[in-house]
C-alpha cells in the first residue's frame, strides 16, 4: 500500500529497503493480531519468535524492593533526581561504565577484563551495531556475515549506512560451523565483484544457532581478519545465556592468546538478553581501537541511555552478590527450560541443533517439508503460524542456505504455556507426518522420511490443563506489527 | 593529535567532520577543567554555556514523593517491572504517546492538538533531528538553516547524513528576523551551485536568540516552503520556556490558518528543555506525513526511549494538575531569572536582544570588541573564558554573520551563582571598556564606543557573599570535553 506523502522524500524513506519486510517480522504480526492468553484467548498464537529472557525477573524484583535508593524516583533516591535528570554527558555516568565493565568481565568468568574508558553507550544492540558500521565502513563497502544470522542485521548494519552484507554460508553438515574455506570463498567473491571488504561480524553465542564458538575456529577467524587487515565485530549480546558447557570464549580472551592487531577488534554488548531488559535500551560498543572509541562516543549522542536507567543499573550491577546469584540462577533456569522443550520435541521425533546458549533452539523440520525448497519451508511456516498457532521463525529469514530449519524461542514463556505449545506441536506432527509420508509415498521419494516417533502421553501436553495467567494485568496491549526493536 | 588505529576506518571516523571542533564545545572543556563551586572552587569557571532548565526541579521531586507507583523501581510499582522492562515495541507505550501528545497540546495553550499515532520516539532532539534528515534528504542535498542557529546542527543534521546546511543570513538590523528576501537569496544561491534544496529547518523559540517567531513571518515562511515544495522542520524544543508575551505560535497552529501541503510539515520535540530532563533522552518526531511517520518509526529503533523512562513520564505527564502547575511556575521562574540577569547586565551597560523565551540571552558585546571581526570576537571570548572565568558561547559558533554576539545561559544556576557571574562581568567591563576606549582613542576610531555605564553597587555582586552549594553531593564528576549530547 502506498502511503500518503511519498513524494520528495529521501531514497531511504521512498524505498522499502528497511529490512523489516521479512517473514521474521511477519510472524510477529500474526501474533499481535491474535495473541495467546491461557484464559482470555487460549486458541491464540503463542509467541515463540521473540528471544526474550523472562525467567529470572523475580530476582530483580526482590533486589528492587530491598534497594529503593537505586531509583531516583523513590523518596529514598529522589535527592539525586536533579543531577541525574540533568546528566547528559555522552561518556555516561562513571559508576555506570564501571559497573558495566565489571559485569562484562564477570559474565566472561573473570577471564577477561574491560576498561570503563572504552565503554561507549548506544541505543540497544541495534544502535550499537549501526554505530560501529558508521565507524568502520563507507557506503558500498562490504561486511562478511556468517549465516544463518540475525534477521535484523539487514536493518541494523545495512539500511542507513549503505554497507553491503556478504553472507558466508554455513552448512548443517558440520553443524553450521564456520570454516576457513567458506570465509576465503566469500572474501574472494567480494574481491571479484569489486566490493571492498571492511570486516567480519559474528554473533557469539550464535543467534539463531544457540551455540558458542570453539577456540580453534575462533583463532582461525582472528588470524583470517588479521591477515586480511579487516575488522572483526563480535556481537556478544547472548554471553550470559550460556547455560552449560562448553563455556563461552570471548574475543577478549582470544586476543590475549594469539597475536593480532587489536585496532581491528570490536565488541557489541547489551543487557537486553543477558539481563532480560530490552526495554531499557542498553547497547554497548566496546572497541580496542582508540579512534573508534572516540568517534563512537560522538555518535552515541544519537542514542544515549536514559540517565535514569544508567543510575538504576549502576547500582544493581555494582551489587556483586546479586550479580553472582543472578548469573548462576538464570543459567540454571535457562538450562531447565531448554531441556524441557527439547525433550518434548524429541518425544515427537523433532531434533534441534545441539546447543548450550541462547533463548531459542534451531529446530530441524526438514522431515516435515513437502518439498526441500524455500517454498516448501514457507508453506510449512504458514501452516505452523496459521493452524498450529505458533509464531516460530523460518530459517530463510535468518539467511539460512538450507530449507527446513526454524528458530524457536523458549525463554519468554512460563512452563504451562510451553506445555501448551508442545501439545500443539505433537498434534501437528502426528497429522503432518502422516500427510508427508503419504505425499512422499505418492512421489515414491520416501527416502527422506525420518520416521517420526510419537511415544509420549497425550495427556501431558493437553491444552486444557489449568495454568496460571501468563500475562500480568500490566502487560501493555499488543501493538501493530514490526514492533520490537531487537530480538 | 592522531589517535592510534586510524587506518582502514570509515571516512566519517577518519575525518574531523563531526562538528564538535567548535568554540561552543571548546568552552565546555574550559569549564570541565576548572568547574566553579561556591566553596570548593570559588575562582573556577562558571558554566553559562549550557542551556539547562534547573529552576523547577522541586516540583518534580515533590510529585515523585507523592507518586511512588509511577516508578517500576519502587515497592509500589515493581509489579509492573517485568512487563515494562520487556517492552520494546518501537511504537512506544500507548500511555506514553498519549501523555506526550496531550502535553504538547497543553504547552501550546490548547490551540493545537496532536495525534498520539504520529508521536515517534528518538534519542533526544539530537536523534530526532538526524532521523528526520535521513527521511527527508539524501547525501548531498541541501537544507536551509536561518542563522544564527544551534551549533550542534552541524553534527545532528549533517554529520552522518551527508546533508548540506545552507545558512540563511539573519541580521541584527531587524533583530535577526527571517525575511523573504534572505530565504529567496539562499534558495537561489543553492540552485546556482546545483544543490537540491530539500527543506528548511527553523527553531521556534529560537536558539540562540530566545525569541519566538511572529505570525506574519511564520506564514510567509510556510508559503515559501509550500511554493517551493520543500519540507519545513520546526524545532520546537523550547516551547514551554516562553516566559512572557508574545505567546508561542506553533507551526501546528499556522497550518490550521493557511493552506499548505501538510506532508511537508514536521516537528522536532523533546523534554530536555521544557521539563529540564536532558538525561532522559526524550526526543520526539511529529510529522504530518504518513510516510515519514512510518519510516521514522522504523528508524526509531536506533534510539528508543528507555521503557523505564517512558513509564515514569507517562504517569507524570498524565497528571494534568501537576502539568498545569509546572508550566506556570516554570515560566514564572524563568522570567524572574531572566530579568535578574538582564537587569544586572544593563546596569553595566550591556544590552541583550529582547527576548521572551529560552534558557539564555543573546548578549551584544560589540562595544567591547577591539576590532569588529571574528578574530576580535575570539580574542574577547578567550579573555572571558580564561580571565573572567565564564563559559559563554561566541556568536561565530552559532554561525552568526556579525561578530560580537554571545549566547549566555541563565537557567542552569541558582541566584547566588548568577550574582557571582554578574560581579565578574562588572569587574571585567570596567577594566575592558577602559582598555577598549584607549585602543580606540589610539586608533582614532572612537566612533563605535557605546559609553558603558557603571552605576551599580559593587557590593551587590561580590563573589565572597555566602551562597548555598550549587552542586549536590550527587553531582557526577565533570568529564572530559565535548560531552553533552545537546544544549
Automatic annotation (TrEMBL), chains A, B:
Q: Which family does it belong to?
A: Belongs to the class-I pyridoxal-phosphate-dependent aminotransferase family.
Alphabetically sorted, this entry's keywords are: Pyridoxal phosphate
The residue ranges of the Aminotransferase class I/classII large domain are: 46-425
What organism does the UniProt record list as the source?
Answer: Dorcoceras hygrometricum
Which residue ranges are recorded for the region named Disordered? 465-487
Give one GO molecular function term: transaminase activity
- The entry's protein name is Aminotransferase class I/classII large domain-containing protein
Q: Which domain of life is it from?
A: Eukaryota
Amino acid at each position: 500500500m502506498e502511503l500518503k506523502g511519498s513524494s520528495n522524500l529521501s531514497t531511504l524513506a521512498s524505498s522499502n529497503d528497511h529490512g523489516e519486510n521479512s517473514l521474521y517480522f511477519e510472524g510477529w504480526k500474526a501474533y499481535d493480531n491474535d495473541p495467546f492468553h491461557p484464559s482470555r484467548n487460549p486458541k491464540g498464537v503463542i509467541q515463540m519468535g521473540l528471544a526474550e529472557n523472562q525467567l529470572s525477573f523475580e530476582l530483580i524484583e526482590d533486589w528492587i524492593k530491598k534497594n529503593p535508593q537505586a531509583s531516583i524516583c523513590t523518596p529514598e533516591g529522589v535527592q539525586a533526581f536533579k543531577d541525574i535528570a540533568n546528566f547528559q554527558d555522552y561518556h555516561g555516568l562513571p559508576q555506570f561504565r564501571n559497573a558495566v565493565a565489571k559485569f562484562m568481565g564477570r559474565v566472561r568468568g573473570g577471564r577477561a577484563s574491560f576498561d570503563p574508558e572504552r565503554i561507549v553507550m548506544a541505543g540497544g544492540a541495534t544502535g550499537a551495531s549501526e554505530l560501529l558500521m558508521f565507524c568502520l565502513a563507507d557506503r558500498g563497502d562490504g561486511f562478511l556475515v556468517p549465516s544463518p544470522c540475525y534477521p535484523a542485521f539487514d536493518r541494523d548494519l545495512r539500511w542507513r549506512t549503505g554497507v553491503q552484507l556478504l553472507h558466508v554460508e554455513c552448512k548443517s553438515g558440520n553443524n553450521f560451523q564456520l570454516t576457513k574455506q567458506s570465509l576465503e570463498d566469500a572474501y574472494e567473491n567480494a574481491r571479484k565483484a569489486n566490493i571492498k571488504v571492511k570486516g567480519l561480524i559474528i554473533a557469539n553465542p550464535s543467534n539463531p544457532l544457540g551455540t558458542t564458538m570453539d577456540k580453534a575456529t575462533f583463532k582461525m577467524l582472528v588470524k583470517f581478519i588479521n591477515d586480511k587487515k579487516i575488522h572483526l565485530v563480535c556481537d556478544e549480546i547472548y554471553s550470559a545465556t550460556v547455560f552449560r558447557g562448553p563455556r563461552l570464549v570471548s574475543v577478549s580472551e582470544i586476543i590475549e592468546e594469539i597475536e593480532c592487531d587489536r585496532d581491528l577488534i570490536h565488541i557489541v554488548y547489551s543487557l537486553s538478553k543477558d539481563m532480560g531488559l530490552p526495554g531499557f535500551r542498553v547497547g554497548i560498543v566496546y572497541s580496542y581501537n582508540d579512534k573508534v572509541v572516540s568517534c563512537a562516543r560522538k555518535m552515541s549522542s544519537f542514542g544515549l541511555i536514559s540517565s535514569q536507567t544508567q543510575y538504576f543499573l549502576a547500582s544493581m550491577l555494582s551489587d556483586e552478590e546479586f550479580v553472582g546469584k543472578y548469573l548462576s540462577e538464570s543459567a540454571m533456569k535457562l538450562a531447565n527450560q531448554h531441556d524441557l522443550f527439547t525433550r518434548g520435541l524429541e518425544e515427537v521425533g523433532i531434533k534441534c541443533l545441539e546447543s548450550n546458549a541462547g533463548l531459542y533452539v534451531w529446530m530441524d523440520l526438514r522431515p516435515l517439508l513437502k518439498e526441500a525448497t524455500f517454498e516448501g519451508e514457507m508453506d510449512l511456516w504458514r501452516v505452523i503460524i496459521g493452524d498450529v498457532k505458533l509464531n516460530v521463525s523460518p530459517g530463510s529469514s535468518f539467511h539460512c542456505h538450507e530449507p527446513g530449519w526454524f528458530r524457536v524461542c523458549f525463554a519468554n514463556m512460563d512452563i504451562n504455556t510451553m506445555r501448551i505449545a508442545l501439545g500443539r506441536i505433537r498434534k501437528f506432527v502426528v497429522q503432518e507426518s502422516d500427510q508427508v509420508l503419504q505425499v512422499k509415498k505418492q512421489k515414491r521419494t520416501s527416502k527422506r522420511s525420518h520416521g517420526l516417533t510419537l511415544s509420549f502421553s497425550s495427556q501431558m501436553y493437553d491444552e486444557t490443563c489449568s495454568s496460571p495467567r501468563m500475562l500480568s494485568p500490566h502487560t501493555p496491549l499488543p501493538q501493530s506489527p514490526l514492533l520490537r526493536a531487537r530480538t
